[in-house]
# Entry
Amino acid sequence: MNIIVTGSIAYDYLMRFPGKFTDHLIREHLHQVSLSFLVDDMTKHWGGVAANISFTMGLLGMHPKLMGTVGRDFGDYRTWLEGVGVDCSTVRQIDHVFTASFFVNTDLENNQIASFYSGAMAFAKNFKLADVYAGVPDLVVISPNDPTAMMNLAEECRTRNIRFIYDPSQQVPRLNGEELRQGMLGAHGMVVNAYEAEMIATKTGLSIEQMCAQIPVLVITQGKRGAHLYENGEKTEVGVFPVDSIIDPTGVGDGFRAGLLCGLSHGWSLKLSAEVGSLCAAYVLEQVGPQSHQFTLPEFVARFRTAFDDAGVLDSFLKAESA
Ligand SMILES: Nc1ncnc2c1ncn2[C@@H]1O[C@H](COP(=O)(O)OP(=O)(O)OP(=O)(O)O)[C@@H](O)[C@H]1O
Ligand SMILES: [Mg+2]
# Structure
């Protein structure tokens, strides 16, 4: 299957604050906030939603086309992504700016405070799917990106009758009700977390049932409680995959999406696809950074079978490996 994953491509600067943010947020002083958190650890990682999703899809043996705009500092990142099989021919480089950068500080309770510099991502609206790829993709994923780019890509998919998954996640706070309604219109699927689903419902005035009535596949992730799946309005739930230890939550949602998309593109059931997503999410949680995990397909299948039952469907991963 020919999948184009569109969205942010960024560098992540991850910091760890050895305390609790909530100890420093004093209700009486919230009208004037000037806080500095002294962090004892900082690491720089590959990141950006579209790149994170594509990376884990690469580990799963897929070759997604990554579409997004990057700056002049992209060279080593391209080499990294191509190394796991991601097709970067659809990435566009803007030489006079830097690649988008995400600065995130995580405290002892896994609360996070983040800032995002859009950099080259602000140019994403200048490119259509047709500008970067001459063929017709089977599926397009519209992940967080410049808001106009997200709108344009959804519109292009509708016009060209290309199946798309709307994944507005981190951009939900930035998008208004009308933009969200437009983005969802004609989508084959939508993936958001529970908080984002609430925000979308409030902003658009659409209930979950009304969203289900227009989107065949709706997935609402529930953090450590797993995910709720709605297929043509019918609800199922999947649990999380047991993790060894939670080291860093950054990118867990992206890992989940990679597995989900992999399963759906193979034509597996929504439940099995989400379970593959749950295991990908577990791998992400166990490392610092959204692209620090590694697994081979046989390792993935063996681990999957310690907690979930695929009734042999994942054997195709093992055949792909030996082919
Ligand atoms: N504590 C956990 N243990 C195991 N799996 C988890 C845990 N938290 C999240 N996951 C897995 O990751 C999926 C996505 O998590 P979540 O709903 O937190 O996404 P998110 O809020 O979009 O995350 P992100 O911070 O990446 O944006 C869940 O559906 C679950 O499968
Ligand atoms: Mg998310």
Residues 270-285 form the longest helix (16 residues). The pocket of adenosine-5'-triphosphate (ligand 1) is lined by residues 169, 193, 221-224, 226-227, 240, 243, 246, 249, 251-254, 256, 278, 281-282, 285 (CB under 6 Å).
